[in-house]
Amino acid sequence: MVHVDEKWFYEDVNKRSCLLFEDETALQRSRRSKNHVPKTMFLAVVMGPTQKREVGR
């Protein structure tokens, strides 16, 4: 049996916050359009061990 799983994630959004040290500056996020946020897909396939059947016994 094979299990296939796919997950879609939106790329970074502008509303996300982050913690910084005192001497760090935040990176500026830029995007061409807020209406078209790119998506990324992760695909994972998991297969369990197969059992061989003994023939002739």
Automatic annotation (TrEMBL):
It comes from the Eukaryota. This is Uncharacterized protein. The lineage of its organism: Eukaryota, Sar, Stramenopiles, Oomycota, Peronosporomycetes.
